[in-house]
Design a protein that fits this description.
By secondary structure, the chain is an alpha/beta fold. It is built from 12 helices and 12 strands. Helix 4 (88-105) crosses helix 5.
Length: 295
């Protein structure tokens, strides 16, 4: 397993640039978020002109060269797709283009968003069928690239274990699995012991990860809480939260997971800039130790 970080975490810590932040954190791998206009964070300044568009072969080649020159690697692409968009064909095209971009950049996975907006009243089966149909087409059109896709346990639908399993079963491709966010089922309200059970159940499907943590009051850790209960107050740096990642990463190790442990620390947003940097330094060292332990 290798250690990486979401690009938006480096930006949130108010480093001068993505390159500067990764250097300070002693990381060479990062997850790259791609917007629908094909824009991504530049490797240079986070100031004016901080985004570049990878919408043609020349721009992609230039970005790939900049990565090589900086000694950096994109570990995965992050998409905020919506498989209930009015232009569903365009949404699938966006996913297909990003899978091809991931292949060109040498990324090992694409994170798929589980969100389906404005589908109130849809049954779980209707949601599953639409999601599976879109993923089938995306995988069929990118068979030559063979990039793993990980549906994140994100939001209300994505934290439904039955939904994740049923989509994977219906698509039936070894390339389709889960982006395991280690804290999201805890955010969803499950007791800590149940979170570990779900991590164990999902481990065979994991294609990518987001490693983060929450520190709830002791008396609430084994209770069923409401979704998102006081998350802004209790999101924690990865070493400080309730989730023991040695347990969760151990499940991945048992199933021979070879992907990234990707840092996502949402406790940063209540810190000042220097505290954010220090939190990410601690996160990085902690996750590096995990990777060494399960090498």
């Amino acid at each position: 397993m290798q250690v990486s970080i979401r690009d938006n975490m480096v930006e949130a810590a108010q480093y001068e640039s993505l390159v500067a932040g990764l250097k300070d954190l002693e990381l060479s791998r990062f997850e790259l978020e791609v917007h629908r206009d094909s824009s991504v964070l530049s490797l240079g300044s986070f100031g004016e002109g901080a985004r570049v568009r990878l919408d043609n072969p020349a721009a992609i080649a230039e970005y790939a060269k900049a990565l090589r020159d900086a000694g950096l690697q994109v570990c995965a692409l992050l998409l905020s797709n919506n498989f209930n968009a009015p232009d569903l064909g365009g949404e699938v095209d966006f996913v297909v283009d990003c899978i091809r971009l991931a292949h060109t950049l040498g990324a090992g996975a694409v994170r798929i968003d589980s969100a389906m907006r404005d589908v109130d009243g849809w049954t779980l089966e209707q949601r599953r069928d639409r999601f599976a149909e879109c993923l089938h087409e995306s995988l069929d059109r990118t068979a030559a690239q063979a990039i793993p896709l990980g549906v994140e346990n994100h939001g209300h639908l994505g934290n439904n274990v039955e939904f994740l399993r049923s989509v994977a079963d219906q698509v039936g491709s070894p390339l389709l699995g889960v982006t395991l966010d280690t804290a999201n089922w805890y955010w969803y309200g499950f007791p800590l012991s149940r979170v570990y059970e779900i991590h164990r159940e999902m481990a065979p499907l994991v294609k990518h990860t987001h490693i983060k943590n929450i520190r709830f009051p002791v008396e609430t850790r084994e209770t069923q809480r409401e979704i998102g209960w006081k998350y802004g107050d209790y999101a924690a740096p990865i070493p400080d939260g309730d989730i023991d990642h040695r347990i969760s990463v151990g499940y991945l190790y048992e199933h021979r997971y070879q992907g990234d442990l990707c840092i996502e620390d949402e406790s940063l947003f209540r810190m000042d800039s220097e505290a954010r940097k220090e939190a990410l330094r601690r996160d990085s060292e902690y996750v590096r130790e995990l990777a060494r332990e399960f090498a």
